[in-house]
UniProtKB/TrEMBL annotation:
GO cellular component, one term: 90S preribosome
Sequence similarity: Belongs to the eukaryotic ribosomal protein eS7 family.
Keywords of this entry: Ribonucleoprotein, Ribosomal protein, Signal
MF (Gene Ontology): structural constituent of ribosome
Signal peptide: 1-23
GO annotation terms (biological process): ribosomal small subunit biogenesis; rRNA processing; translation
Pfam families associated with the record: Ribosomal_S7e
PANTHER family: 40S RIBOSOMAL PROTEIN S7, SMALL RIBOSOMAL SUBUNIT PROTEIN ES7
Matching InterPro entries: Ribosomal_eS7 (IPR000554), Ribosomal_eS7_CS (IPR047861)
Protein name: 40S ribosomal protein S7
Organism: Umbelopsis ramanniana AG
Amino acid sequence: MSFFFFTFFCIAILIFEIQQTSTFFQQRCYFWYCTRPYFHLSTSIRPYSLSYTMASHKIAKPAGAAPADEIELSVAQALLDLENNVAELKKELRPLQISSAKEVEIGGGKKAIVVFVPVPQLKAFHKVQQRLTRELEKKFSDRHVLFVAQRRIMPKPTRHSRQKQSRPRSRTLTAVHEKILDDLVYPTEIVGKRTRVKVDGSKTIKVFLDTKDATSLEYKLDTFSSVYRKLTDYCESVLFQLQGAFLYIIKNQKNNGNCFVHRQWCLN
């Protein structure tokens, strides 16, 4: 009988201690809830943070990457607003995400926003890119908006490298830089390109664009040049020009069983 009362007494003490501990933690949590500015109902930070939290779902970053900055969240929020408010873009924008966004100075106090998108979604972005660019440039009225695929450059394999498979052609530095050039001027077609190397080793690239989109491209030529140099650091100057006619000639000459390809650029 005494053992029963002793057991009941111990259980009662244990329940009392649990209640006291629970009350203590509830008080501490309530104090923390009231003092934290993010959770305080009277602060203006809460709706701003919640909207940016929803916009963060439009950003696809690899594991271990740095958190999204203000520019990336602004672009993601703009995409989310267009998805919710523009009926023509809702279906196309819903599955699309961006990898990152970067602000680039183009001189004269002007800036441009480069939006990096996943390579598998590039074609889907191309379907709505013209309309999407116009809408985003309305929201960011003082900046041009450009879309570039997030590509990876693999280093050249060496004798001591541990790579078991050969490097794909699409992962080389030259191929990635060419793709960046195509992405910057899309949907305009590049009809010619010249690379001039001076005696001192400096390089100048001239890129000739089709004139059918002259009205929508002329004011962006300097932006293309500045952004390409910032993204690649490949040459000292890049010149974009509008060119109407272009002739591309490939001549094959065989010499001792080897095939050489000569390219002749004929521009008027």
